[in-house]
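For this section, I looked closely at a protein sequence along with its fold in token form, which I now present.
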Amino acid sequence: MCALVKTTFLFRCYGHLKNQNVTDILTSLSGLLVSGEGHILDIKQSITHDFLTVSILFTSMNKSNGLGVKLETMAQSLSMKSDLEQVAEEALDNIHGDGSARYVVTVLSRYVSMEHLHQVLVLSQERHLKVDSIRQLATLPDAQQAVQKRSAIEIVLIGKGNVESLHRDFLSLSSELNIDIAFQLETPFRRAHRLVCFDMDSTLIATEVIDELAAAAGVGEQVAEITESAMRGEIDFTESFHKRMGLLKGLDESVLESIAEQLPIMEGAERLFTALNALGYKTAILSGGFMYFAQHLQKKLGIDYIHANELEVVEGKVTGRVTGRVVDGQRKAELLERIAQDHGIPLSQVVAVGDGANDLPMLSKAGLGVAFRAKPLVREKAKYTLSTLGLDGLLYMLGIED
């Protein structure tokens, strides 16, 4: 009696869909593998426009039962092409594991060109990283959406190397190409973030509230100059904060409501929070701005927690002081850690987003710290940047597709 020998095969089926149901195709295919005593090692299916590709790597204990002919016949009945090849055992190292790590490169821009993709692949090749998969995360916009166009491509790479060095290489390339490239080690936690903390001014809103208050008080130029210097990291945030506050003394309280009603929400913020809230993420504002305006955003966007500075108002006038501890960079990092601890969330599953130098402590504390449309100093020090898209570009960095 002839002994059964386990043999490994790679089967590919591909072609244009002609009103076929993909589930029906996969069901028929899996049924044939069951009859052939097939054991699946790897399987991938994708549709580009209307072109279906299915690849299955499997083992079979009996090569002579006509499985190959049956698979080919099935493909032909669907007007699709197919091929079946035997795979040598020594070629299965990547399936069984050779100590290589998996990395995810997310390429973001209003338009990711073929040149952009080519340069990312060239760098991957130079660093001896193999492409495992590529997929488009953003749906292509129609003509009416052209202004809000988003493009996002996710590339999964396999290889060995120093993560910090690879991260720097891809970050450098993103600067050269003027696009955003996020290089992350693929771990179980990458898609399991549970808390997202945001700065407010110039992050959730497209303005600096203190500058709006200053303009109403007639001291706009002086305050704006101090704000810019602080955001660039040229002067201490707390010192600059007290200087700016002093210039607001005597401002009428009614101005606060007027400004709050007209706050320009940052591009992509509403879409981002709709998704985060639906997915059950905890969210927080950690701001060096003011609680009055943070409360306004909390109601509008459905944010769980807010921490900001409390303006002191006496007899309807701003005194130029705040009550309680100033929320500076260090305080933001402490609050992020405290909220995470209260919910039993490890820092590796926390995301932080901000634009200024005072956001760097919380960006470095979070597992995914993103400098959003940030000043040069902040972009240089942050591990991740998002500059070409709106806030909803963060969804693609989390591996969430449209």
